[in-house]
Write a structure and sequence with these properties.
The complex is a heterodimer of chains A (277) and B (270).
Chain A lengths: L10 H31 L6 H8 L2 H40 L7 H16 L2 H11 L12 H27 L2 H9 L4 H31 L11 H12 L3 H32 L1
Helix pairs in contact in A: 3-4, 3-6, 3-9, 3-10, 4-6, 5-6, 6-8, 7-8, 8-10, 9-10
Chain B lengths: L1 H24 L9 E5 L19 H12 L7 E5 L2 H5 L8 E2 L7 H6 E3 L4 E3 L1 E5 L10 H5 L3 E4 L4 H9 L6 E3 L2 H9 L5 E5 H11 L4 E5 L9 E3 L2 E3 L5 H14 L1 H9 L11
Parallel strand pairs in B: 1-2, 1-3, 7-8, 7-9
Antiparallel strand pairs in B: 4-12, 5-11, 6-9, 6-10
Helix pairs in contact in B: 1-9, 2-9, 2-10
Classes of the chains: A mainly alpha (277), B alpha/beta (270).
Amino acid sequence: MTQPNAAGATRRQRYEAAQRRRAALIAATSTALVAAAIVTLVPMTPGWEKVQRSFFNYDTLVLTFPKLLEAFTINVMIFAWSAPAIAVLGLLIALARDTKSPALFPLRIFGAAFTDVFRGVPVILTVYLIGFGIPGLGLPRPWNSPYIWGSLALILTYSAYVAEIFRSGIDSVHHSQRAAALSLGLTERQVTRDVVLPQAIRNVVPAQMNMLIALQKDVSLLSFIGPVEVFRQAGVFKSLLADFTPYVGAAIIFLVVTVPATRYADYLMARQRRDRR
Amino acid sequence: MSKIVSLSAVFALMATSAIAAGECAAGKTLEDGKLTIATGNPAYYPWVLNDAPESGEGFEAAAAYAVAEEMGFAADNVVWVRSSFDEAIQPGAKNFDLNMQQYSITPERDRVVDFSEPYYTAPMAVLVSPGATETEPTLDALRILKWGAVGSTTAVPKLDSVIQPDSDVLLYGDNADVNAAMSANQIDAALFDLPTALFLSAVMIEGSKVIGQFAPDASDNPDQFGMLMEEGSALKECVDAALTALRDSGRLAEIEAQWLQDTTGVPLIQ
């Protein structure tokens, strides 16, 4: 870092400051132009008035928003118990696929089949099949609740993804570390638990944040098998009022939650890149 | 004998009014000389039989052809398309002249789209799972059941305002999903319009039963089905005229008697 001399900034610093100002000005102008174009041109389209009435109806939003927020607590609830289960099951599957012993070959096969199946099937199909199928076997209440089996469908699907991410994290820890730890006299188990996993998990935290955000949105798929969460509640209002604004309200609620989470994931990833340099 | 006479009178009446109404609809449909009618995908029994509205079998299919005829469209000039509820109420141009899939007329919906005169008044009915068939048709007995309904129907506000169940209601996307939930014993009871409930209990869910209906005039907002049209549709007056003529001539009641089960055996809910 060069210190400013007695006469103020150096010529290079002045030049760079001017360049930055210029870039900021151009960015601001182009943003303002695009925003102005959207604000003036969209309302000039012939269908705007109808679209506005059907999607951006302020009265409908005010009327329905409190009920939507209430329904969102169901999303939060399902998310809250699914996420930890996904983390645990995902890690177990990753470890199962990472075993080395020949005797544990069936475990590796199971891990591979599990990820193949649940990554390969659309979430909504899994939700339907497990959410209606397993209770249909004749389970008594409350064990046939769509909350339980719907959550299980989410947990299985997301575990498959999360397991793959954990596995990439485990692979990212160099083999020499394992060898070094073994040569120090640690058992295989200790090596995995104390040397590999702490680094592996740290490495994949940003990627797992993205899975959390995706899960937060996919919780809504449980609405197909009964629970009245925010998406279904918005759908009920849409049908009764013949107005799509409640969907916009639901989208706002999702954004308020996911945008900060996305930014946080970006921040974690940027920090990780810095640390690796 | 008298039936034949009255029938021929009906036909004669239809023939004369058809010519008049044919002029009414001229130039007001999507395609000149054709009437495009939308139904559900799939269309459900007993409204449309075998998901084939072209056959004219089922209450709505038969009523649609009767209305078309009354408006001066021959049967082969009726074009069927499929639409979802959302497509019907989204802003913008529609791909149908009329949309007929048990749309309940509500003032809120009427602001966004046009409805014809009602062609059917549907009482709401309670369908219960095989395990709950002994439930008394009283509000107190119904309240303690675990309820389900199709989320896009007027059954939802009815449940909230009239039955007020003790536990949370579960809502589904369509009739088939309500079936699945009832078969999986996740719900005890579901609220449908009476013809749909009777069909589901007779054909779809073994052992289930329709234990009661709400008198259609008991609530301040009876469920009346109307044909849905684009807001401000020029066709509305022609459709209304056709439906009024069909009702006055008794033809609509005939179609109803032919395709919808006798609903008088279902007790009223106290």
